[in-house]
Structure formats: structure tokens, C-alpha cells
């Protein structure tokens, strides 16, 4: 979206995720300009304090340079803070990935999604299911646009060519189709010692090697709960940049993750996924046959056993379209933003008695959540 908006976009980076492997590499990888404004003192704070600091800092920034609209994407604390700050400033809010619902009140992201919904002026829903959720909640139909999800184009643009992907796979001492790739980082899994130990034990019991990029939250939990033993039985690797993760995901036998983004990416990569969670806000991936929801314990063991035994799953998924669109989501979103909030581009020639137009560029108040789930 930022690339399509060009100079009319202003990127604000909250710093919610502060690990360079999960954040700053994405600006270079996607060819994005450096953030125009960075918030300080946000990363690593408890959720309430983090949101409060972001709202305060974003309010100051928006007052100093009021934009035509504020775009917030997803369900991060940053998205919630950006929507609240913009709403309080009287600036239109555009919510990208609007309408996702897990109906799980214990999920922090669910609270963020439900906080943003009544504040948003334009809801860019990725699917018809997401749009239907918004309509049932009383959002007016003319404020909801089904756009698809930007993850499709991001995945297609970032996935390395086959030769490079195979090099990355070989670099990790595994062979295509001969390993699992797992990511675990959600609080429901990492904040519960018994649950995290069970997940790690079940993965370690598999016959195939399991690559496990350790998220900073997971690494801290492993240390705090004394789980170095179970982790040592897995192929622990450092957090990956997006291209590296996609290369490994594209050629793995099976994905195991509690990430929201991986549930979308697997539909583009055509790889089976076990979602280790109590609930999901992305049921489209499950209904389409790409993902399977499983709690640790019997459900996870059964899902792993059955999917690893299904030798035709890869061929079957290769024939299925992604439920998240055809890769034109950014164009659809930018078209909606331009038509509703942006005046036509100014002419190059200007009479000397004309005053320049005020700065009314849209702000993308975005956390680096693209990598936050790795």
C-alpha cells in the first residue's frame, strides 16, 4: 500500500516489535522507504502501558502533521492505538484486515479488533466472512469493502526463486519435504509452562526434524520455565527474515504454528498447517482445507499423525485457490482510500498567487507485525 501511495504515504513505526530480525529487515526486504516517524519507549512494555504510550505519542504526531486519513492494519496494539489516536483527533480511520473474529474474549488481538471496529470509517475486509461479521455488528454496508488480504501479494513478492529457496533449505541441513517448520509465540502457549512443555514434547517426539525459529517471547518462556531440554531435542534456529521463512515453509512437509499470518501464508504456499490454538479468527483457511485447528495434547497428536500420513495432501492443496484473494488487495485498498479521502494529485504548474495545498498525506500507523509472528 505504501508503495502504491508513493509520496502521499507517511509511515509511522511504533517499535512495538523491537527485534531487528522481526522488524527492520522488512523495510529493506519490501523496498519500503524508511519510516518517516518512529515512536520511542514502546517495545517491551506491558500491553496497557504500551497502548497508552502509543496513543499519547501518535496524538502529538497527528496534531503536528494532520493527515487525510490514518491506515491501521491488523489487530496489534499499534493498530488499536493508531485508530484511537486518529479518532480522538477527528481523522478518518481506515482499518485493513477488518472484521476478523475469533469470538475468544481472552485473546488480546480480539479485544484490539473489537476496539477498532466502531472507530473505523472504512473497513477493508479480506473476505466475505469478515465483512459479514462487521455487518452483524451494525457497521453500515457502505463503509465495508471486500478487498482480499495483502498477505497474498506480500508472500508472492517475497518468496525466493526456487534455486535460492533450495539453498536456504540446504543451509539448515534438511531436505525438501523432509522436515517440519514450527513457530510458537502466542501468550496462550508461551505463558503456560505445562502447555508449552507439552507442545515442545509432542514436536520432539516426531520422526522428522523440526525447525523451530525461537520468537523472543518463546525464548524467554523456555528460560523461565526451565524447558531447555525439550527445545534441545528440536532444531532451534534464530528468527528468520520473511524470505527465509517463506523458503522453508514452501518446502516443508508440514507447518505447525500459532501465528495468524502463517494461516494466511500457507494458502499461498500450498502447504498444510496445524494451528496450535484454542480458536482462530481465520476460519477460511480451515474451511478451505489448508489448516487444521488443534489444542496441545490429543488433538495435536492426532492432527500431526494424520497429516504426516497423508501423502497426497501437497498435491491436493496445490489445486486449491487461496481464500484470501488474488494478490490485488493493496490496489483495491488504495483505490478506496484515494476515492474517499485524497484529493486529485496537484498539477505541476501553479500560478504564483496560489497557496500550496496543506500536507494531507495518509499515515500508515503500522507495527512491524509482518514479522512479529515468526
Brief digest:
The protein has 374 residues and is α/β, with parallel strands linked by helices. The protein is 43% helix and 13% strand.
Question: Which secondary structure elements does this structure contain, and how are they paired or packed?
Answer:
Blueprint: H1 2-5, E1 10-13, H2 25-29, E2 37-38, H3 47-64, E3 70-73, H4 77-88, E4 93-96, H5 108-116, E5 122-125, H6 128-136, E6 144-146, H7 151-158, H8 162-171, E7 180-183, H9 187-190, H10 193-204, E8 210-213, H11 216-225, H12 228-232, E9 235-237, H13 242-250, E10 254-257, H14 260-269, E11 273-276, H15 283-288, E12 291-294, H16 298-309, H17 313-318, H18 329-341, E13 363-366
Parallel strand pairs: 1-2, 1-13, 3-4, 3-13, 4-5, 5-6, 7-8, 7-10, 8-9, 10-11, 11-12
Amino acid at each position: 500500500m505504501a508503495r502504491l501511495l508513493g509520496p502521499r504515504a507517511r509511515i509511522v513505526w511504533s517499535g512495538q516489535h523491537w527485534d531487528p530480525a522481526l522488524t527492520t529487515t522488512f523495510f529493506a526486504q519490501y523496498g519500503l522507504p524508511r519510516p518517516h516517524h518512529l515512536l520511542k519507549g514502546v517495545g517491551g512494555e506491558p500491553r496497557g502501558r504500551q497502548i497508552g504510550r502509543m496513543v499519547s505519542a501518535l496524538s502529538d504526531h497527528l496534531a503536528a502533521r494532520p493527515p487525510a486519513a490514518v491506515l491501521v492494519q491488523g489487530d496489534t496494539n499499534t493498530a488499536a492505538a493508531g485508530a484511537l489516536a486518529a479518532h480522538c483527533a477527528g481523522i478518518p480511520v481506515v482499518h485493513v484486515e477488518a472484521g476478523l473474529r475469533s469470538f475468544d474474549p481472552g485473546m488480546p488481538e480480539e479485544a484490539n479488533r473489537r476496539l477498532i471496529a466502531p472507530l473505523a470509517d472504512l473497513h477493508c475486509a479480506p473476505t466475505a466472512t469478515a465483512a459479514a461479521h462487521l455487518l452483524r455488528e451494525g457497521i453500515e454496508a457502505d463503509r465495508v469493502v471486500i478487498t482480499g488480504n495483502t498477505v497474498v501479494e506480500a508472500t508472492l513478492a517475497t518468496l525466493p526463486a526456487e534455486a535460492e529457496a533450495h539453498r536456504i533449505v540446504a543451509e539448515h541441513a534438511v531436505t525438501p519435504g523432509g522436515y517440519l517448520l514450527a513457530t510458537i509465540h502466542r501468550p496462550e502457549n508461551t505463558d503456560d509452562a505445562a502447555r508449552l512443555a507439552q507442545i515442545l514434547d509432542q514436536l520432539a517426539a516426531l520422526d522428522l526434524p523440526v525447525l523451530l525459529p525461537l520468537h523472543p517471547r518463546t525464548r524467554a518462556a523456555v528460560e523461565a520455565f526451565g524447558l531447555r531440554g525439550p527445545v534441545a531435542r528440536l532444531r532451534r534456529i534464530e528468527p528468520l527474515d520473511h524470505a527465509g521463512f517463506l523458503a522453508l515453509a514452501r518446502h516443508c512437509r508440514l507447518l505447525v504454528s500459532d501465528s495468524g499470518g502463517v494461516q494466511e501464508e500457507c494458502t499461498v504456499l500450498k502447504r498444510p498447517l496445524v494451528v496450535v490454538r484454542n480458536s482462530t479468527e481465520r476460519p477460511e483457511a480451515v474451511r478451505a482445507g489448508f489448516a487444521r485447528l488443534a489444542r496441545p495434547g490429543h488433538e495435536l497428536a492426532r492432527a500431526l499423525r494424520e497429516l504426516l500420513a497423508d501423502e497426497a495432501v501437497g498435491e491436493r492443496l496445490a489445486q486449491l485457490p487461496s481464500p484470501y484473494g488474488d494478490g490485488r488487495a493493496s490496489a483495491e485498498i488504495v483505490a478506496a482510500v484515494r476515492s474517499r479521502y485524497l484529493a486529485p494529485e496537484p498539477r505541476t504548474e501553479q500560478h504564483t498567487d496560489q497557496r500550496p495545498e496543506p500536507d494531507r498525506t495518509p499515515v500508515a500507523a503500522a507495527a512491524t507485525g509482518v514479522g512479529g509472528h515468526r
